[in-house]
Design a protein that fits this description.
Elements (H helix, E strand, L loop, with lengths): L10 H37 L2 H32 L8 H20 L3 H29 L2 H11 L2 H15 L3 H22 L15 H5 L10
Helix pairs in contact: 1-2, 1-4, 1-5, 1-6, 1-7, 2-4, 3-4, 3-7
Pfam family, one: MFS_1
Subcellular location: Cell membrane
Protein name: MFS transporter
C-alpha cells in the first residue's frame, strides 16, 4: 500500500478532491442500491411466478453479497500492486464502473434467473472493486487530520443514492432502464472523478508475489494492534 498523505492540503485542493470523491461514491451507491432495494424485486417477478419470486430474489441477493465480500479486499490488494501508467486507482475505479454497467445491462435485459444471478454477482463485484479503489484514494490523497471532513460529507451519499434509486424506479417503467440508468450515472461520475484525480503510477514493483495466503490476510486482523 502507498504511503498516506501527511501534509495538510490547501482548502481548494481538498474541496476539489472531496467533490470528486462525493460524486463517485454517489454514483457507485446508486448503481448498487437501485437494483438491490427495488429493481431486482420487480425484475424477478417479471421472470418467475409470485410463489417462486421470494426464494429466487433471496438467492440472487445472497450470491451478490458474497461476491461483494470477496471483491472489496481483493481489489484493494490488487490496486495497491497495480503498475499501470494511468495510476494504481484510476483503472479500478473507472474499469469497475464500466464492468458494472455491462452487468447491469445484462441483468435488465435477461429473462433467466440464473443469468440474472450471474449479472448481479458481476455487478456487485465490479461496484465493490471500484469502491475499494475509490476509498483507497482517501489515504493516498488526504492527511489524517483532514479526512474527517471528507468522510463526513461522503456519508450523505448513501441515503441520497437510496432516494435517487427510488425516484428512478418510480419514474421509469422498463426493467432495462431501471438497471441501465444507475449504471450510466456511475460511469459518468466515476469518469469525472478519475479525470480530476492525481493518481501517480507506481514506480517500484511490489515486494513478494500475490498469493492466496496474502489475500486471506485481508480478512484477519490482530485486535491488539487496532
Amino acid at each position: 500500500m502507498s504511503s498516506p498523505a501527511t501534509a495538510p492540503l490547501a482548502p481548494r485542493t481538498l474541496n476539489r478532491y472531496a467533490r470528486g470523491y462525493f460524486a463517485a461514491s454517489f454514483g457507485l451507491y446508486l448503481a448498487v442500491f437501485t437494483p438491490a432495494m427495488v429493481a431486482l424485486s420487480f425484475k424477478v417477478k417479471h421472470i418467475v411466478s409470485q410463489d417462486e419470486a421470494t426464494a429466487a430474489l433471496s438467492l440472487i441477493l445472497s450470491l451478490g453479497a458474497l461476491s461483494a465480500l470477496v471483491a472489496s479486499p481483493l481489489a484493494g490488494r490488487l490496486s495497491d500492486r497495480t503498475m499501470s501508467r494511468f495510476g494504481r486507482r484510476r483503472p479500478w475505479i473507472l474499469g469497475g464502473a464500466v464492468v458494472a454497467l455491462g452487468a447491469l445491462l445484462l441483468g435488465g435485459l435477461t429473462t433467466s434467473v440464473p443469468l440474472l444471478a450471474f449479472a448481479w454477482c458481476a455487478a456487485q463485484f465490479a461496484v465493490n472493486a471500484a469502491f475499494a479503489a475509490t476509498n483507497a484514494t482517501l489515504a493516498d490523497q488526504i492527511p489524517g487530520v483532514q479526512r474527517g471532513k471528507v468522510t463526513g460529507m461522503v456519508g450523505m451519499t448513501s441515503p441520497l443514492a437510496i432516494l435517487g434509486g427510488t425516484l428512478v424506479v418510480n419514474l421509469v417503467a422498463a426493467d432495462g432502464l431501471r438497471f441501465a440508468l444507475p449504471g450510466l450515472v456511475a460511469v459518468g461520475l466515476a469518469a469525472w472523478f478519475v479525470a480530476r484525480l492525481k493518481d501517480s503510477p507506481r514506480t517500484t514493483r511490489p515486494a513478494g508475489r500475490f498469493s492466496l495466503r496474502y489475500f486471506a490476510g485481508s480478512f484477519v486482523f490482530n485486535p491488539r494492534r487496532t
